TrEMBL record:
It is an enzyme of class 6 (ligase). This is arginine--tRNA ligase. NCBIfam families: argS. One of its GO terms (cellular component) is mitochondrion. GO terms for molecular function: arginine-tRNA ligase activity; ATP binding. It comes from the Eukaryota. SUPFAM superfamilies: Anticodon-binding domain of a subclass of class I aminoacyl-tRNA synthetases, Arginyl-tRNA synthetase (ArgRS), N-terminal 'additional' domain, Nucleotidylyl transferase. It holds the Pfam family DALR_1. Coiled coil: none annotated. It comes from Podospora appendiculata. Keywords: Aminoacyl-tRNA synthetase, ATP-binding, Ligase, Nucleotide-binding, Protein biosynthesis.
Length: 633
């Protein structure tokens, strides 16, 4: 993986000149940069331009039919009245090269293809030298020793806190919680793969008036027996019943509010009083109230822990609104009050954001009329608390887009407090809706639906899945297929588009799906049969066939694709890329199988094995970055 080794490899191809050096170019992690640099060098020689200008005029070809690299000729900044003419001229002058075939002049674009004869000779050793690090800049999360603070406690890795999932105790596990779980988990995996220290944090909705309402429900509908049998389902059941009972009171209150009449009286009676009274007791530390609440919370966490584990998700901390430090809450209020941002209105304490220069944000209450804290106040304090606890470089909140303005309020409040630096390290990663979830109300329903869809597909075609271990231990092969299916369905969609939950689709082998990804990864492993090919003296001649060449051309881009995914914290691009490889490899493996049956080409040719192994590495590494666990390892 050293520059010398790479240089040696290229010399074997007949490239006498050392790799031309360019800044912003990293030939040791991105093979595309090798081609990019040599192409720039050729342009310097035939167009007499500045090296960096030549380098910057080259871009990726967006469509593989149009080559691998694309020289945008006007960007070479050569004085000419006819750039098309110049392009044709450059194509003619383009020398014989061990890396490129002769380019195509296409308008003002010079379209350059990698030479299929040398591509495998560069790329296969390149990938095999790097193995599980191919494509992944594992040092991206390391602090630059030159610029990092001398403070030894800061450590050498950067730290990110990823807050995700965060369901509410006693309530439905909504599409938004599902998406947050899946997105948060790939964001955490991406950072881990890139060498960051990652703290996974679940900020449970375990505090607030709705817990008071749940308690009111418990006294009427709660059953210890049902709770023990299926805690999350029973709590939800209790909650739905009390909500039903509460609805008329709420409607009466909302009517008054809409008529701009006083709601204080109605809120001091009935279930309102019971709900708020219970929550007030919780906030005041009442032992009985807290005992009941603790029981709900502890058992819910235990249940979630098991469900998350089934999804390959673990949390380093089950935080929650209830756990936010009281002293820090008081500190936040004191600072805001001191600086004149907190004002009293009608018994509650609020910030009038508009008044303080935040035009898009309206008034928000921090402490309510009954003296209890709000969601907003707890969140502001939680940010301060986590910063002190973890000293993170970045914290990502993976929360639905509907809470955009809530996060704007948190961030604005931190700025008001004089914590601009903390604010600059916070990011709200938002997402749109998950639709078509149907009757599912709990995470266990969602997991169950996905896994049984996988089971049905596998059981209906056992021969096809023969290479997968038929284990009866949990998680079974079908269980893992189901989870990958769920993950991949989320990752196929950009965060700000809606996802459509469809159990049938996620396990179909005919479309891009988690099942398809796992299936072909498995077929590839089966074809390799554990062979680790020796790259000495391979006969690469076989690999010039178009199917193989195209696969190699795609694999060259892998590091750049991973980098893009990490930068944008979007999985779509990387996953779509992995499916391009899956599509290609499925054709190759099936063709080979047909040929074998017809008594054709021997399948043990070393070069072919080397290619398959590097395809496997790319798929494996890509899945690793996304946190998708291969069923066949
Ligand atoms: N429990 C909240 C909900 O279900 C999500 C929490 C989001 N995180 C936060 N720091 N506010 O809507």
């Amino acid at each position: 993986t050293s520059l010398d080794a790479l240089q040696g490899l290229l010399e074997n191809l007949g490239l006498e000149d050392p790799i031309p050096p360019f800044t912003s170019c990293d030939v040791l992690t991105r093979p595309l940069d090798i081609f990019h640099s040599y192409l720039a060098d050729i342009l310097v020689k035939i167009a007499y331009c500045e090296p960096q200008v030549a380098y910057d005029a080259i871009q990726w070809a967006t469509d593989m039919n149009n080559g691998d690299l694309d020289v945008v000729v006007p960007k070479l900044r050569i004085k000419t009245t006819d750039n098309k003419e110049l392009t044709r001229d450059l194509a003619e002058k383009f020398p014989q090269s061990s890396l490129f075939s002769l380019p195509l002049a296409d308008g003002i674009h010079l379209r350059v293809f990698f030479l299929s004869k040398s591509l495998p000779k560069v790329l296969l050793p390149y990938i095999h030298d790097r193995k599980e690090t191919y494509g992944i800049d594992t040092a991206a999360g390391l602090r630059d020793p030159a610029t990092s603070s001398p403070d030894a406690s800061a450590g050498t890795r950067k730290k990110v806190v990823v807050e995700f999932s965060s369901p509410n105790i006693g309530a439905k596990f909504e599409g938004a919680h599902l998406r947050s779980t899946l997105i948060g988990s790939y964001i955490a995996s991406m950072h881990e793969a890139h060498g960051w220290d990652v703290v996974r944090l679940n900020y449970l909705g375990d505090w607030g008036k709705q817990l008071g309402l749940l308690a009111a429900g418990w006294t009427r509908f709660g059953s210890d027996e049902l709770f023990a049998a299926d805690p999350l389902r029973h709590l939800l059941d209790v909650y739905l019943q009390i909500e039903e009972l509460f609805r008329p009171e709420q409607e009466a209150r909302d009517k008054l509010r809409d008529e701009k009449k006083d709601t204080a009286e109605i809120e001091s009676q009935g279930l309102y009083a019971e709900r708020d009274g219970f929550f007030k007791k919780m906030e005041d530390g009442d032992a009985d109230a807290l005992a009941l609440w603790t029981k709900f919370r502890d058992v819910s966490i235990e249940s979630y822990r098991i469900l998350y584990a089934a999804m390959n998700v673990t949390f380093d901390e089950y935080a929650g609104e209830s756990q936010v430090n009281r002293d820090i809450i008081a500190e936040v209020e004191a600072t805001l009050r001191e600086k004149g941002f907190l004002e009293e209105s009608d018994g509650s304490w609020l910030i009038d954001y508009k008044k303080h220069g935040h035009k898009g944000l309206s008034t928000a209450i921090l402490r309510g009329r009954t003296g209890s804290t709000t969601y907003l106040l707890r969140d502001i304090a939680a940010a301060v608390e986590r910063d002190r606890k973890y000293a993170f470089d970045k914290m990502v909140y993976v929360v639905k887009a509907e809470q955009e303005s809530h996060f704007q309020r948190i961030f604005a409040a931190l700025e008001m407090m004089g914590l601009a630096d903390l604010r600059s390290r916070l990011e709200h990663v938002s997402f749109a809706k998950c639709v078509d979830l149907g009757e599912t109300a709990l995470l266990s329903d969602i997991i169950g639906t996905s896994q049984s869809a996988a089971r049905i597909v596998i059981e209906s075609d056992p021969d096809n899945y023969a290479s997968f271990p038929a284990t009866t231990a949990t998680p079974t092969t079908a269980d893992r297929f189901g989870i990958a299916a769920l993950q991949v369905q989320e990752m196929l969609v950009r965060r700000n588009n809606n996802t459509h939950f469809s159990a049938d689709r996620m396990v179909s082998l005919e479309v891009s799906s988690g099942a398809r990804l796992q299936y072909w990864y498995g077929r590839l492993c089966a074809a390799l049969q554990g062979a680790t090919p020796d790259l000495e003296d391979l006969d690469y001649a076989l690999l010039v066939e178009e199917d193989y060449t195209n696969l190699l051309r795609v694999m060259t881009q892998f590091p750049d694709i991973v980098q893009g995914a990490f930068r944008t914290m979007e999985a779509t691009g990387l996953l779509t890329y992995l499916f391009r490889i899956v599509d290609q490899i499925s054709v190759i493996l099936e063709d080979e199988e047909d040929e074998e049956e017809a008594g054709g080409a021997s399948s043990s040719v070393g070069a072919r094995l080397a290619l398959l192994e590097s395809v496997r590495l790319v798929l494996r590494n890509g899945m690793g970055v996304l946190g998708v666990e291969p069923v066949l390892v």
